[in-house]
Design goal:
Elements lengths: L2 E3 L2 H9 L6 E3 L17 E3 L7 H12 L6 E3 L1 H7 L3 E5 L9 H11 L5 E5 L4 H14 L3 H22 L6 E7 L4 E2 L4 H7 L3 E2 L13 H7 L3 E4 L6 H7 L1 H4 L8 H4 L3 E4 L12 H12 L13 E3 L4
Parallel strand pairs: 1-2, 1-5, 5-6, 7-9, 7-10, 10-11
Antiparallel strand pairs: 3-4, 7-8, 11-12
Helix pairs in contact: 5-6, 6-12
Length: 305
């Protein structure tokens, strides 16, 4: 079977199911496991992804006013690879090539006889269902069941232990400028890790957030996990927060509970590594109890001024 994956999370799912050798193409953002980077990329952004988060936000919004997708597909390369299955998504137009664009290229332009699997992970249960659906389509259903059971066991162990702990009030920041809180599966992960999520609702898209709302809520902890950004890039964007005139009013700032994470590798990818995402949150929220070894690679505490 020849598989083309159009988003990082689906590539991770395919590999976790033991089918990396069947991948013939990936998206431009697929980089885990590192061995997939040898595969030809068949997508690319229509915008310049470099620059400040505000600039990137404006470029994406401008494209979406005129098109259904902010990414493009290399149709000729895709045709030459002749995949049997394409894995894409319908959840977010900003995260990957839109489903409409995939259909247009595959069905209308190339007329490929490929099966399209469209994932739509709005909450954790959707992620788990998607894993099993991919496994079923790729004829390894038992591997899907096994992978989901392992994920549930690991996350469940953390959740069971964290229920005995006092939950801090947590704000998760998915975009820095303009401010956006994390929604979809993130409120569930915060709860599992022993926190009380105060912005964003399970199963709903990430909401925009005003500074007045952030100040009024005054969270105990702020976890910064910008979509598509590693910790180095997130640090670069921090002045938009730390230089804001109201930043120092926040309890989390005053108490030194500001945390930077690798949002790109973990929280923003609805796949197998959501387990590690829960582990990271548990280490941040309850360091006296949880130690998984992610500090320094998956997260770090922002040093107080």
């Amino acid at each position: 079977m020849r598989i083309a994956s159009l988003l990082p999370s689906s590539t991770e799912i395919v590999c976790a199911l033991g089918l990396e050798a069947d991948l013939v193409a990936r998206s431009h953002g697929c980089d885990f496991p590192s061995t997939v980077t040898k595969l030809p990329p068949i997508t690319a952004p229509k915008f310049n992804p470099d620059g400040r988060s505000y600039e990137v936000d404006q470029r994406v919004k401008a494209i979406l006013q005129e098109a259904t997708s902010v990414y493009k597909i290399d149709a000729e390369r895709l045709k030459s690879l002749q995949p049997d299955v394409l894995v894409t998504q319908t959840q977010c137009e900003v995260c990957a090539v839109s489903f409409a664009e995939v259909q247009r290229v595959v069905c209308d332009y190339l007329d490929l006889p490929a099966e399209i699997i469209a994932l739509e992970p709005n909450r954790l249960s959707d992620v788990l269902d998607d894993i099993q659906r991919v496994a079923q389509t790729l004829h390894v259903p038992e591997r899907g069941v096994s992978l989901v059971e392992e994920m549930l066991a690991r996350m469940g162990a953390i959740a069971n232990q964290s229920r005995q702990l006092t939950p801090p009030r947590v704000a998760t920041i998915e975009w820095i400028e303009p401010l956006m809180a994390a929604g979809n599966w993130m409120p569930e992960l915060v709860t599992m890790a022993g926190g009380m999520n105060i912005f964003g609702k399970t199963g709903e898209h990430s909401p925009w957030l005003t500074w007045d709302e952030l100040i009024l809520a005054d969270p105990d902890m702020i976890v910064i996990l910008p979509c598509g950004y590693d910790m180095t890039t997130a640090h670069r964007e921090l002045p938009a927060l730390t230089l804001h005139p109201r930043w120092d009013e926040l309890k989390a700032v005053q108490n030194g509970h500001i945390y930077i994470t690798d949002g790109n590798q973990y929280f923003n990818r609805p796949g197998p590594r959501l387990v590690e995402s829960v582990e990271i949150l548990a280490e941040i929220l309850h360091p006296e109890v949880f130690h998984f070894g992610h500090e320094g690679t998956g997260w770090e505490r922002l040093a107080s001024e």
